[in-house]
Amino acid sequence: MANIFGVNVVSPSQHYEQQYLDLMQHIWMNGDERVDRTGVGTRAVFGATMRFDLAEEAIPLLTTKRVFWKTATREMLWFLTGDTNIRSLVEQKVHIWTDWPLDKYRKETGQKINRDEFEQRIIEDKAFAEQWGDLGPVYGKQWVDWPRYTPAGEGLYRREKNGINQIKLLINGLKNNPGSRRHIFTGWNVAELDQMALPPCHKTYQFYVSDGKLSAILYQRSCDLGLGFAFNIYSAALLVRMIAQQCNLDAGELVWNGGDVHLYLNHTELVEEQLSRKPSGAPKFKILQKPDSIFNYQITDFAVENYAPQPHISAPVAV
Ligand SMILES: Nc1nc(=O)c2c([nH]1)NC[C@@H]1CN(c3ccc(C(=O)N[C@@H](CCC(=O)O)C(=O)O)cc3)CN21
Ligand SMILES: O=c1ccn([C@H]2C[C@H](O)[C@@H](COP(=O)(O)O)O2)c(=O)[nH]1
Prior knowledge:
The protein has ten helices and twelve strands. By secondary structure, it is of the alpha+beta class. Helix 2 (69-81) packs across helix 7. It starts with a strand and ends in a 14-residue tail after the last strand. Bound molecules: 5,10-methenyl-6,7,8-trihydrofolic acid and ligand LAUPNLSC.
């Protein structure tokens, strides 16, 4: 891979996943060993870029392990509803956000409930879910309902019933003023970070229209390269494709910029297994119909073809 002015140029003969495996190898061999918030410990580099071509229905799904793209798709559709409670995810058998509310519940009540029991209660008991299943004003809330305040006299402010829908504004902007350099949305609401279970990792998205194609940069401040990345890069591509479809554009390129990019020290087995495998194949992504709005996609609207990954590799998630 050549590097020109900080732009990684992936040669067309190289598999799109090779840059990911190279970065994984580099971090595992040369990363700074650091103590992190979770106490697990990581090896990390600061600042990394990868580029993925989205032309001709390409989708950046890792092929050296199976990535559960439907799980990631359900999560993205959940973001777009503005929901921040894990209940609707758990109802769809998506477990990736359960560990944070569960951890909080155990710490605050001292109860030794296991994950399955906790999820069962979240589903069966609406009041329990409202009390214990909410992640605070994370991604979805900020994306489609960023709070807005208006003066109410005497130095007081009233919170408007409807916040700012950044996704709707983005799509209007892309349609009406494609050449703009301000096509951005972000989950990083500084005033509300302390209420979130986790501050956003995939925190800023910027879009760019040229030659009938929609490209995007994702800036991810913190990246769990062994677990989170596979989801994050697929989800970002999914988002580009949905937005492109809504704006009658083709998908162009997805540029991923990572800040603190790390491998957890308890991911040795995953790293060694994955680095021993060779990427292969080029899955295709299809959107089967065009809903009348970005907010009306359903899981059945998407299909992945030609995806023949190597077996799943499980690894513990650091909470
Ligand atoms: N340490 C850490 N890594 C993350 O990737 C991460 C967080 N924390 N906290 C918030 C969210 C939750 N996300 C997660 C959480 C778990 C998996 C995970 O366990 N994935 C497994 C199985 C997926 C499944 O059950 O379908 C995997 O092998 O990809 C992935 C992303 C991404 N984020
Ligand atoms: O979409 C996501 C969400 C989270 N992560 C990872 C990155 C870190 O390992 C943790 C978050 O911990 P912080 O201390 O808040 O950075 O979760 C991810 O890779 N992708």
